[in-house]
Structures are given as structure tokens and as C-alpha cells.
Amino acid sequence: MRSSLGLLLSLSFSLALAVGLVASPASDTSEATISREAQALLEHLAPADGPGVAMLIAKGDTVIFRGARGRAAIELGVPLGPDQVFRIASLTKTFTASLILKLAEEKKLSLDDRLAKFLPDFPNGSAITIRQLLSHTAGISDRGTGSLAASPQRDLDRDTRLAEYRKRPLDFAPGTEWRYSNTGYILLGMVIEQVTGEPWHVAMQKRLLTPLGLTHTRYGDLDALIPGRVQGYTTDTPDHAVRNAEYIRPSVPDSAGALVSTPDDLFHFVRALAGGRVIGRDSLHQMITPAPASTATGGYGLGVFLWRVRGTTMVGHTGQIPGFASVLGYIPDRDLTVIALGNDDNFDARSTGRRLAAIAMGQPYVPAVAVPTTETQLQPLTGTYRVNDTISRTVFLKDNVLYTQRSGRNAFPLQVTANGELHFVGDELSYFVPVRDSGGRIVRLDYFSDGEGPPQPLTRIENASH
Predict the structure, then answer these.
(1) Are 159 and 77 a contacting pair, CB within 8 Å?
(2) Which of 273, 352, 446, 448 is buried deepest, with most CB atoms within 10 A?
(3) CA-CA distances (angstroms) from residue 119 to 92, 192, 194, 195, 321?
């Protein structure tokens, strides 16, 4: 693996330059400790008799933890295993981006080609590049009506879908902003079809999945018999009761989210990608370089997010689709891979991926423990705090419980810890730190998104009236 390690070191250096981060010191946490803490997290997240989670942590080529808990089919009492097949939703985007980059290396297309070259009649196609589609900076809107929005349960042919996409105005001028776009990645699937002359998933199977030996990764055809495929559920209900997930055909998410896979296959894909067996070094560097318009959101490259976890960078993606939620993360400077797949669409895969990464680095997130508080103690925290010129966040009391509500969003309860931090109730990692002036009055809240700094200061602008 000497060549892979050399590439990984180069990748780590390039990534640090690209996102301006300094690697934190390596941890000497034992594999036994990592395994024990990962198992504890798994047991906390997944009940033994409900929807479950499969997890994997690896250092280099060595799997440190691999486990699952819950049910693959609740009605039949089938236990969930780490070798079973899940819908991976938007993790598909990383595969789609990889295939586009591979086709670019083969000179079958260029990332700077215009969409009009492949879809001549698409509105604004001459202003949209393949690179912009890959980085969600093309302005392609997901806000649709009509047949696509009304028919997630039935297949719609390419012409019908394309006709609706053509009706949607751009969200912004291509290249000027960043906004996540499933439709943009579906258009990339159509580009793959134009270039290869095959359905995108057939081209994916022939050119990427089969050569890499990913035998359990494929198009999630609901009419096919796929051994080990788990059932999808939801607990996103008023009483948090388990329900069967909404039925949705794979042609709806298409090349933006229609693949199925296993933790093992995803791990092998990461090793192949990092080791230069999927795309070359230059393509990999482009993949992990954040688009300038995306940096305000933390950064998005070509088919991958760039997250900051414990002072270092994790490259990866999350996915959510009715019945399933997923996360895949790779930390270049530690050569660590983390994967979590759940068969409950209410599963917080994003936070789980961060928690697994922190465990693997020997810097686990400490659970927030609430302390008793009185209304007198909580009242000074209430008020309205400015997020930006158009968005504010209100903190208010209701039935002696502190809540926070962002403009246009739902309210969420907060809990106060012994050191005065305000944490969301539940497994959310983000929290607030009240900042006082010399007279002891709270003048702002410092917001630590995903439990990471530097904080975003939210200046107090008025008292709440609830």
C-alpha cells in the first residue's frame, strides 16, 4: 500500500491548503477504546427491536469497529446486520461525481463543458458548466410542481422529467451562489447517458462498481430481488411511533440518490478513491477543493462536503430518503473512515458521523448533561438575537422551559449545562454560549455549529415577549 499512503499524504496536504485548516495531533487512542465507545453510541442510537443502524470505523485498511443494532424488518423480527443492503440516498452523488470525473479523464467530456453540449434545448444551458452542476453552483432549482412532485410512487420517463426541469427558473445566476440541488445531479445522470449511450446506472455498474468489486452496490430497483435488502421506516411522527416509510420509486432521486449499498462496500469505495484506483490525483484534488461560492456553508467540492470535526477536515456526504439516512466520512490526515447507515429517515446521520469521527480521533463529544434551573435564572437569556441582516433567532420561556426559534423555523427546547452552555435537547451537537457585558447583562450568544468553533456571534437586539 506504499503508493496509496503516498497519495493520502499528498491528499492531506492539498486538502489542508484548500480549506485552510491545520491538522490536530494524532491520537493514541486504542482500538479497544474506539470499539467500546462506538458500541455504546450504537446502543444509544438504536433500540434492539426498532429501526436500526449499521456502523463502521476503519484506520487505513483495518476495520476497527463494525456492528449493527435494531431490526432489518420489524414485522418479521429480522435482526439488522452490518452486511445488509441499505438505500444510501445522496451518498449516490459521490459515485455520480466520481463517474463524471472518470469520464473527464477519458476525454469523453470536460468539466468546463456547457450543459447545452449534452442537452441542447435546456434553458440557460450555455451558461451552466458540468463543474457547476457537480458543485451545486449552477442555480438549478429543486422547487418543482406538477407530475414530479405529485408522483413519487411511479416511474416517469426521462422526457417527462426533463420537460418539467425546463420550466423551472434558475435560483441564481450560475456560479454566483451555492444551493444544494438534487435536480442538478439528475441532469448529470442525463449527461452520463448522452456520453456513454447507456442508462446512467448501467454505465455506473460497468465502469465503476463492477471493476471495483462492489458487489452489493447497485441501482436500487424496487422490482428486483436484492439479497439482504432492509426495510425502511420513519419515526418522524407526532408520537415518534414507528411507521412504514413512504413508497418512492428509485427513478425519482435517480442519479442524485438511487443507489443501494452496504457499509463494507462503501468502505472499499473510500479506500479505492483515496488510493487512486477510481480517479487520478488531479481529479481527486479537484473533487475535494471547495467551490468558492460554497465556503459560507462549510464547503462543498465535486460530490463531497468538507466538514470540520475536532479541528481537522472530514470529506464525505450524507443522505436521506424516505425510510433511510446515511453518512460517509473520510479524514485524510488520520486516514480514518466512518460510515453509518440507518433504516429510519429520522436518524440523525450527520451528527452520528461527526460523533464516530471524534471517537476515532480519541476526542469524543461529551454528552450534554442538564442542570436544574429556575425561571429567574432563565429569564435573562430570553430575547431576540441577530443571525444576519434578514434572519434572527428568538429565545423564550414557555412553561418554565427555554426554547429557541430561528426565523421561519420550528421552536426547539434548550437545556442548560453546569458551565452555562445552552444545548439543544437530544443528540444535536450545536450549542450556544451566553456572553455578558461588564454589568452582567447578556449581550450576545456565541453559536457553535456542530459543536465546533470558531463560533458565530449572535448579537442581542431586543427582549423576547412570550
Answers:
(1) no
(2) 352
(3) 22, 11, 8, 11, 27
Gap between the terminal Cα atoms of the chain: 62
Q: Pick the last residue of a domain from 335, 360, 385.
A: 360
Residues 397 and 336 in one domain: no
d(CA 306, CA 326): 16
Q: Helix, strand or coil for residue 435?
A: strand
pLDDT tens digits, 267-320: 999 999 999 999 999 999 999 999 999 886 679 999 999 999 999 999 999 999
Angstrom distance (rounded) from CA 271 to CA 336: 10
Domain containing residue 304: 2-360
| Residue 118 belongs to some domain of the structure | yes
Q: Residue ranges of the alpha helices (H) in 228-367?
A: 263-274, 281-287, 349-360
Q: Output the CA–CA distances (angstroms, integers) from residue 19 to 284, 290, 291, 317, 318, in the order listed.
A: 15, 7, 10, 17, 19
d(Cα 18, Cα 33) in Å, to the nearest integer? 32
The answer to whether residues 270 and 236 belong to one domain is: yes
